[in-house]
Amino acid sequence: MGVVRTTKTVRLVTQFFDTYEHAIGVLDLVEKFKEEMNRSTIYRILDRLEDEGKVHSFLGANGLKHYAKCKDCNHKEHVDVHPHFQCTNCGMVECVAYEIKIPALPDKSVEQAQLLLTGICANCKD
Amino acid sequence: MGVVRTTKTVRLVTQFFDTYEHAIGVLDLVEKFKEEMNRSTIYRILDRLEDEGKVHSFLGANGLKHYAKCKDCNHKEHVDVHPHFQCTNCGMVECVAYEIKIPALPDKSVEQAQLLLTGICANCKD
DNA sequence: ATTGTAATTGCAACTGTTTTGCATTAAATT
DNA sequence: AATTTAATGCAAAACAGTTGCAATTACAAT
Ligand SMILES: [Mn+2]
Ligand SMILES: [Mn+2]
Ligand SMILES: [Zn+2]
Ligand SMILES: [Zn+2]
After folding, report:
1. Is residue A2 in a domain?
2. pTM higher than the cut 0.90
3. Which residues are noted in the entry as Fe cation-binding (chains A, B) (predicted)?
4. Residue A61 belongs to what domain range?
5. SS3 A54
6. Looking at strand C, which nucleotides approach a protein CB closer than 7 A?
C-alpha cells in the first residue's frame, strides 16, 4: 500500500466531515452511507482518516466509537485532545474546547485523560 | 418480582466484590465464574447489584463495562462518582478518590462527567 | 489513450459480546 | 412439606465489528 488512493467513497466521507460540525457515532455513519458503501468500507475509511490525522475518535456514553474532524493533527500525532459532550436528550455529541488538566496520582504516571460530559444541550434546554 | 432472593450465585459475586479492591471487566468476571454460573447469570446479577447500589459500572478504554464496589450508594442513587484509572501495561483498573470538577459549558447543562485516566500503575513502574 | 499494478471495495462468513425466551430449579413464605 | 414465583441454565438470537478473497478501480507508466 505505497500510494494512497482518493476513491469515490473516501471523498464522500471526507466531504461529510468537512461540513459536519458535530461528532457522529459509527453506526450513524454506517446508516447514513448505507446506499453509497458497504459497512466494512466505512470502518476501513474511518481507520484510515484517523491514521492520517483528519478525524479523531472517542467513546460515547454507550461505549460506541464516535468520530469528529481534527483541527491541527497529522499522520504523526493527534494533538487535538479534549473532552466531549453528549446530550442525553437528543443524542447530539460534540467536541468541547477546554483543556483537560490531568490530575497527578501518587505512584502512577497518568498519560492520558478521556473526559465525557453528559447533560442537556442548548437546543434541548428551551 | 416482589421479593429479592439471595441465591448461591448472587452470594458468590457479592463476596467477590467484598474482598476485591480493584475494578474488573465484565469478561474477566464471566471467565472467573465460568464454573459456578452461566454467562447470562453474571450479566443479570451485575445489573441487579448495580440497581441495588452495591456496585457501580463504567467503561474501560476498550469500551467494555467494568465494575467496582460502591461505598455509600443505595438503590435510590449512586453518590459514588469519581474517575477511574486503567494501566495500559498490566490492565489493572481502579477507582480514583478524586473529585471531578465539572466544567460549566455555555448554553448547556452538564449533569455528569466520566473521566478515564490511562497510564502506568505503581506495580508496573518499577 | 491504453495498459499494468496493486490499493480499495463488496460481499459473505465469522468472531466476540450481550440479550432474550422459555423450561427448569430453588429460595422464601405459608 | 407444599406452594409460589424469583432466579438460573441453556441455546438461540441480536448486535457490533472484523476478515479473506475475488472483483473493481485509481492512477502511474507507457
Ligand atoms: Mn473531539
Ligand atoms: Mn469506581
Ligand atoms: Zn440535545
Ligand atoms: Zn500495571
Report:
1. no
2. yes
3. 78
4. 8-125
5. coil
6. 6-12, 17-21, 26-29
